[in-house]
Design goal:
Layout (H helix, E strand, L loop, with lengths): L1 H13 L1 H13 L8 H35 L4 H22 L2 H26 L11 H5 L7
């Protein structure tokens, strides 16, 4: 058992995907005593961070385009269809990733994410955009909603 754990830890360093396959086999067979817990915990934590980062990125992109769509009046005639398409694309990609837990995470971080999106939209447009987030999470996620 000790050799298998040591071998699994070494395998993690040498061949990550083989380590992953072996870890899945151990889990499926309920051989918990043979797991490489240290690296498994590290990978699960990284997976959680990655999923949170992905949904946060989509929300930033959605809000950025909502701001441009709503406030950049000089460019609306030329870009509104493009911005609308981008908003719909990002919402669709977000919908494929979102879970209840990730939705709750986004609700907690929405104002922070708005600040990041606002900064990007301002840099692109040179507009002074609202400092306070005008969008609810429901509006950001609703594939049919656009600001007036």
């Amino acid at each position: 058992m000790v050799n298998q754990i040591t071998d699994l830890k070494l395998l993690y360093e040498v061949d990550y995907f083989l380590w992953l396959e072996e870890t899945i086999k151990l889990l499926n067979n309920r051989q918990l005593e043979n797991l490489d817990y240290e690296n498994l915990i590290e990978e699960l934590e990284a997976l959680g961070r990655s999923e949170k980062s992905a949904v946060e990125s989509f929300v930033i992109l959605i809000i950025q385009h909502l701001l441009l769509y709503q406030y950049w009046e000089e460019e609306i005639a030329n870009n509104s269809r493009h911005w609308h398409g981008e908003i719909l694309t990002f919402r669709t990609q977000l919908e494929l990733k979102i879970t209840t837990n990730l939705r709750n995470h986004l609700a907690e971080r929405l104002n922070y994410l708005y600040g990041k999106a606002r900064k990007i939209a301002q840099a692109k447009s040179r507009l002074q955009l609202p400092e306070i987030n005008p969008y609810s999470l429901e509006q950001v996620l609703d594939e049919d909603w656009l600001p007036e």
